[in-house]
Amino acid sequence: CMDRFRILSADKATILLDIGSKLSKIGFIGENSPRVICYTPSALFSLDTFVEDKPINTQIALASALSDDKSVERRLEDFLQQIFYRELMVNSKDKAVFVCENISLPRKFYELVAKVLFTKFLVAKIFFVPALSLPLYLTGLQTGIVVECGFVCTQIAPFYEGFPLTRALKNVRASGAALTEKLRELLVEDNPDKKPSFFLQRLLDEIEAKYITVPTRRQIDEYMKDEATIQEMRAKVYEYHSSGKAVKISYLTRLLATTALFGDVDNDEPNIAYAFCQSLAQTDINCVRKVCRNVILSGGCAMLKGFVKRFRTEVVDFLTGRPEFERLRHLKDEIRVKSLNFFSSTLVWVGASASGSLIGVDRFMVTSATYTAAEGKLPLLMSDFLFEYEREKVQRLHEDTEKTLA
Known about the structure:
42% helix, globular, 15 strands, 6-stranded mixed beta sheet, 17% strand, 18 helices
């Protein structure tokens, strides 16, 4: 182990960090998969969506967690120390670090990341790259639309010739956190002897991966047509054993869990496919046809069985059946969802790995000397230019939330 540590410490490989609100992917630029995929410590963001048997808003939890700079800085340092020295077994001193920047997180978080990396781990330079644009690199095209199904929210971003169409950028609450809450609610009904707090995040993730599928709306309507059919599905139960305890999972739970992702828009429920159509509607008419021919579904929720089929079906149904999308009906045969040879949950990381291998990236990096000369202030990042309006909106949201909490 020590020999491997010395070899990697002497190596000039650039470290790549994708710190998500739920999962973090860590590795090196130029590789085709992360070396480490782990849960981001709950103490870092405090994003548990269930506290004292009551659901909480993930956006409020995020603002609350980031309100204490010193606490977040300490937790972040502990987390990176674990990653660098125990998982990657590499000395970060004088190395370059790529950081995938999620614009749904406030800039303050990335300022803390820079402070910890420069002052505690003595890295030579850092490049903050906007995460939303990264899956596009893997298609070999500069035009397309990225649907990033994250834990806090789902972000939909169209790009034309490499530039984001920020006017058409969409955020929707149909996300991993919403799916988690819906699944927990249904499992409590299946297991009346267990409290909601029994169903922790890791247990729910295991159940999602093994049992949850995404049915079409027609299938749901067929199974929900009468009370007798509903009771029959509730009686059909699977058992999943966790820590010596059996968890009952009804067929009804498997059927309804993903309504958190594809809700009824007539009842103001969030729906990823509807938000996608809204994004297309706000995309310039001269480039929308080219954009929708390259759809990239990224994120953990996109890995659910049946997700792609449901997404495609609902998009076509919305385009042909909703009056607000009448002028887009000609696009129903133009939607092309790309199939990539990577897991959807790692597309951002792999895209960063590919883009970081390009010549000329160094000129966009923030060096230790630049950071010191700016007295510890982070200069303008690429996302500050590309997603200026969205950045300001997220910042205002977190400031308002912090005032509410205070």
